[in-house]
Write a structure and sequence with these properties.
The complex is a heterodimer of chains A (about 120) and B (about 120). Helices cover about 0% and strands about 50% of the residues of chain A. Chain A has strands spanning about 5, 10-15, 20, 25, 30-40, 45-50, 60, 65-70, 75-80, 90-95, 105-110, 115-119. In chain A, the strands form 3 sheets. In chain A, strands 2, 5, 6, 10, 11 and 12 form a 6-stranded mixed β-sheet that branches. In chain A, strands 3-9-8-7 form a 4-stranded antiparallel β-sheet, with no helix packed on it. A two-stranded antiparallel ribbon of chain A has the order 1-4. Chain A starts with a strand and ends with a strand. The chains are: A mainly beta (about 120), B mainly beta (about 120). Chains A and B meet through strand 11 of A and strand 4, strand 5 and strand 9 of B.
């Protein structure tokens, strides 16, 4: 079974600074995806960034980037130039890539990191 | 972008009554939808995988008779909490995987969630 671990329950960062959220996972699969989702106070789940395991290049989306270390099974999220709107719960998630089209695409979440951006 | 509509946003009911929550994919077809449960300040726990035209697949520990799932069409899945009790009070979130998921880079799209309070 796959597990996702986020060891930082809460983080705080000054506006405009950079913060890194940690995530480790455990799997025996070779084909999978990793995600970071943001859940603001509205509780709407918002996809922040996505990484395919077969790609060595780290994914980036504007101010958000990841450090994907496949051998170490580590997938950290770096937020640059933090903004007040970044205040939210951040979840790391794992999805095994099924081999067949009719297999289930289950998304397994970590416990989350609450990020507070201070003005 | 793909939109998933979830209704109602919140519901209050008396103990012993049943509550139905709808999850609709508005601009895409979804053979597969997922139902999650989230307690305050905790992560999302997968309850079941909803499959159009077949029975739902429940995660270990989730009562099938308590949480009835019906995937009536390619755009609609419903979760019915039967004979609800206060311990069923929670935030329920659905997500959908577009059938053309390869075109959407295999992303899940989330509904806005339903807060259920059982008195």
């Amino acid at each position: 079974a796959q597990t996702v671990t986020q060891s930082q329950p809460e983080m705080s960062v000054q506006e405009a600074e950079t913060v890194t959220l940690s995530c480790t996972y455990d799997t025996s699969e070779s084909n999978y995806y990793l995600f970071w989702y943001k859940q603001p106070p509205s509780r709407q789940m918002i996809l922040v960034i996505r990484q395919e395991a077969y790609k060595q290049q780290n994914a980036t989306e504007n101010r958000f980037s990841v450090n994907f270390q496949k051998a170490a099974k580590s997938f950290s999220l770096k937020i640059s130039d933090s903004q007040l709107g970044d205040t939210a719960m951040y979840f790391c998630a794992f999805m095994k890539r099924p081999l067949r089209m009719d297999s289930s695409y289950k998304l397994i979440f970590g416990s989350g990191t609450r990020l507070l951006v201070r003005p | 972008g793909a939109v998933v509509s979830q209704h109602p946003s919140w519901v209050i009911c008396k103990s012993g009554t049943s509550v139905k929550i709808e999850c609709r994919s508005l601009d895409f077809q979804a053979t597969t939808m997922f139902w999650y449960r989230q307690f305050p300040k905790q992560s999302l726990m997968l309850m079941a995988t909803s499959n159009e035209g077949s029975k739902a697949t429940y995660e270990q520990g989730v009562e099938k008779d308590k949480f009835l799932i019906n995937h009536a069409s390619l755009t609609l899945s419903t979760l019915t909490v039967t004979s609800a009790h206060p311990e069923d009070s929670s935030f329920y979130i659905c997500s959908a995987l577009p059938d053309r998921h390869l075109a959407t880079n295999e992303k899940l799209f989330f509904g806005s969630g339903t807060q259920l309070s059982v008195l």
